[in-house]
Amino acid sequence: xxxxxxxxxLVTLIFMMFLYAAFSKYFDFSGFKRAMGNQPFPVWLSxxxxxxxxxxxxxxxxxxxxxKTRKSGxxxxxxxxxxxxxxxxxxxxxxxxxxxxxxGGIIRLLTWKQHLLFNLFFIAIxxxxxxxxxxxxxxxxRSARSxx
Length: 148
Description:
- This protein has 6 helices and no strands.
- It is mainly α.
- The longest helix has 26 residues, at 2-27.
- 79% of the residues lie in helices and 0% in strands.
- Helix 1 runs antiparallel to helix 3 and helix 3 runs antiparallel to helix 4.
- It has one domain (2-147).
- It is a multi-pass membrane protein.
- InterPro entries: Methylamine_util_MauE (IPR009908).
């Protein structure tokens, strides 16, 4: 029971982070699109990311809402956050000539080192949530015990 409450709290934090990130991009879509255009990526990739990133964040957040899809949402969270983290590490290692940030809202005010810590925090809580979220077998066993 205690693990479930902790998992719910951690998943709620991830959910809110993804919704905030996605909707801050939607609310300033022209700024997000411009910032993506300044990325050190090929133009086609920047244009693709403009289309894919906000919905991916909303879909990931939505997956976290339901018990049946929560583990998929946590895996998607880990994949997205690790990808974003590799980008930040590349910036910190000066592998790109420019350091544009496409994050929205208050997240864009973070330094790159703070951003790295932010991402590592969310990766950690996603991994912890994945570990303590009961699987289908555990849920079946728990419901069988409670019906006795």
